[in-house]
Known about the structure:
It is a single chain. The protein is α/β, with parallel strands linked by helices. It has helices spanning 26-29, 50-65, 69-82, 89-105, 116-120, 134-141, 145-161, 181-191, 217-230, 249-262, 297-307, 327-348, 354-372, 385-394, 404-414; strands at 131-132, 167-174, 197-203, 212-213, 235-240, 267-274, 312-318, 397-400, 421-426, 429-434, 437-447. Strands 2, 3, 5, 6, 7, 8, 9, 10 and 11 form a nine-stranded mixed β-sheet that branches. Strands 1-4 form a two-stranded parallel sheet. A hairpin with a 2-residue loop joins strand 10 (429-434) and strand 11 (437-447). The longest helix is centred in the last third of the chain and has 22 residues, at 327-348. The chain is globular and about 70 Å long. It starts with 25 loop residues before the first helix and ends with a strand.
Amino acid sequence: MMQFTEAPPQPFTHQMTPFSNPTMNKSQIHRTRPWPGFPTSKSLGSFGDANCMEQLLVHCANAIESNDATLAQQILWVLNNIAPPDGDSNQRLACGFLRALIARAAKSGSCKLQLAALANANTNLAIDTHRFSVIELASFVDLTPWRRFGFTAANAAILEAVEGYSVIHIVDLSLTHCMQIPTLIDAIANRHEVPPLVKLTVATAIDDFPPTLDLSYEELGSKLVNFARSKNVMMEFRVSPSSYKDGFATLIEEIRMQHLVYAESGEALVVNCHMMLHYIPEESFESCYAFDQSSSLRTMFLKGLRSLDPTVVILVDEDADLTSNNMVCRLRSAFNYLWIPYDTMDTFLPHGSKQRQWYEADICWKIENVIAHEGLQRVERLEPRSRWVQRMRNANFRGVSFGEDAVSEVKTMLDEHAAGWGLKKEEEDLVLTWKGHNVVFATAWLPA
């Protein structure tokens, strides 16, 4: 059974695995070298450790950014030989970045005129993201603590915050399409002889990024209402036509109008933000929020949230920084964070399984968005816990500690997964770790 005392951080796993004998198929071994004097396939093992792969990716990114098509093509050829998509976790990680760099090169100046070597490599650029059924998605998110950690910590904090309320209004801004809610409903049913009325509001279903569902939110809502009824919990479900693209401005205004009517009758307002807020753009736009047009959308969203005077706000997200305007800096940050899902995958998913393909497709989508896109198309803009904490404080929220029940629930959940996962507290917050490295944080907030 794993221990939850914090172990000393270990070296990055993606920097530990030697790469002495890369797996190559016959077409790769016999592929003609692109230029005289360039390494042969047999000598590519010297390029194999993860530090070297990271440096090759950085050099390739710099070549693409400077429009040096010849150098970019040379490095992409090497990467294609040392980073097969079916290799070990380090190789698959590098392959994801190789795919993203090819996508960026295809858009970049003279580089797009000189991609013959890539065509010869038969590199498959398509990312086949899966459309999940509800049952598939529920099973998928249960595979790893990556999302379950946030669900578990948030549900425990919500239950504590809404004790004594007869009506609970939950605004669920979640990347995983309400997969957290059934467990919360079950807990509410078990804690009350006469359960409170639960109102659930979600933003319009988003297909801009994975995971995606194979049914509408109206159909999903019907399933949730039926599940709640089976637990003797009355639920109302509503979809707001609002989007991360405008900072959920429409949603904030709708909730404001509703809450003015129901707050005096003892309705708790819970806002659950699970790996969604980092999609809100940082650019400033006019007319998104009537009361302030001078700040970024993230700042405006949090100010709008504070104006609702919510009972509790839960903010869960991945603890990394992918906000740099410099693509090479983003590549380094992403490489030194996204080794974690590839490393953990080998502990719970067999090689070649469908679920592994789905899991890796989601990560590859994230990598490509970070590397190949700019402007409003680049939606993967993770910010570290420290920056979100400051944002929340600036918006006049105060952090609250997770109680003993929340910590106990998270520890129990982690017991169901592989050794290597850990839990630590940073100030009032809970942080999920993998081999000592921060992965996901959970924070709880009250109006100051």
